[in-house]
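FAQ: What does a multi-protein file look like?

Like this. Sequence, then tokens, then the next protein.
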Amino acid sequence: MLASISNTNKAPRLTLVGAGPGDPELLTLKAHHALQEADVVLYDALIHPDTLAYIPEKTIKRYVGKRANAHYYSQDEINALIIDDAYKYGHVVRLKGGDPFVFGRGYEEIEYAESYGVPTTVIPGISSATSLSTINKIPLTARGKNQSFWVLTGCTTERKVSKDIALAAQTNATAVILMGLGRLADIVHIYKNAGKQNLPVAVIVNGSLKNQQIILAQVNTIEEEIQKKTITGPALILIGEVVDLHTAKSIHQTIGAQPEPIYATNTI
């Protein structure tokens, strides 16, 4: 049940905060300030445990899950928690991985909060869509290689590969594909049909973390290379000529330690 009467003298409000791609040191200063001022923090599964150290001990922390195919709370339940906690305690910080407006359903949460009269603020985060290539010294755009980059989801709400990937394959744009590892075979098929079987590909797993992996290959070999690895954790797919500019200068190379799953505590 949604709270209708405040149990605190504090006015209810919501701050939606992007935590960045994973590395706790990539949290912005403004996001850090919001965590320091929060009365309640609702955080996702992909939030690094060390990021939680920025939250004062007195602050209520709620783990709400939201990993692919492993939702601890449904989106409707999270929405209800935001309103309940805002009216009970005051300032709620909703801490989400990456940037909350890049495939993060952040807009849905502030829209819901505002419908219940809760004022909202959004603090952007460093998105994995643009930061992980930079961390790994792969430019998303490079003179003579491409004129644009496309940020795409690999899997739609209908659990199908995005039709926009076929459009991107017809261009020389760098494709940045989030949540696409489970649809890698479909993505490879699309690029092969576009005559791009030799296009360089990078798959970045657990990007920005100490256990990051980067697998470099081509469209026609990436599936084989992926099958050789044990991959646990979120992955980003980069497809385009710019991948060849990676400083390793070597196809079929893996950089980094074997990945380990991120451990997320359930603290309420």
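And here is the next protein:
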Amino acid sequence: MVLTLAPVFGAMGCFSPHRGEYQVSQGVSVAEPSGEADQLWEAVQETLRRGRFPLDRVDRAAGVITTVPENSQHFFEFWRHDVATTRDAWEATLNPMRRWVEVSLTRADEGPWTQLSVVVHKERLSSPDRQFNSSGAAYQYFGDSLPSTTGLARVTEKDDRWLDCGRDLAMEDYLLRAILKRCPAQVAWTTETSPGS
């Protein structure tokens, strides 16, 4: 069994994130309020919904839409699309990961929206190691009846922590392009890019 799995895990280690530049924000020139602003605002929400990111804060006055943290898709969940690279799909399959999105439309004073930015936050679950005193304990791994290796009597959900893993630039690029494709509003001028990680 070990010999059979070794090439699979070895190949997974060869995946590397896309190197290059990602588009994470787009200059826009949209008067607010206007019909174009309505279309852009709806395009952002629809893109997030289609990506299966549940909406949390929708604040048009501040120009901010955020989502609830959502567990990231595993490699076999082909019907979902909340990771943008093969490496990220394998990472979420082997380690519990979650992502949440923050979209902002900025403007100076009461003027038009001038910048559309997408930020995707990535987090990894950290849970204390559990003791395995028998082969039957493996069936209780995700429960709360096993003690920890550090002396806790039981490991429960309150002992879990979500660790910040930075931004997911590839997913930011994907979502921004999806928003622009869905929105007929006029987009213009500057484009901010960030190097891949």
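Q: Is there any per-entry metadata?
A: Some entries carry free-text notes. For the entry above: The first strand starts at residue 21 and ends at 30.
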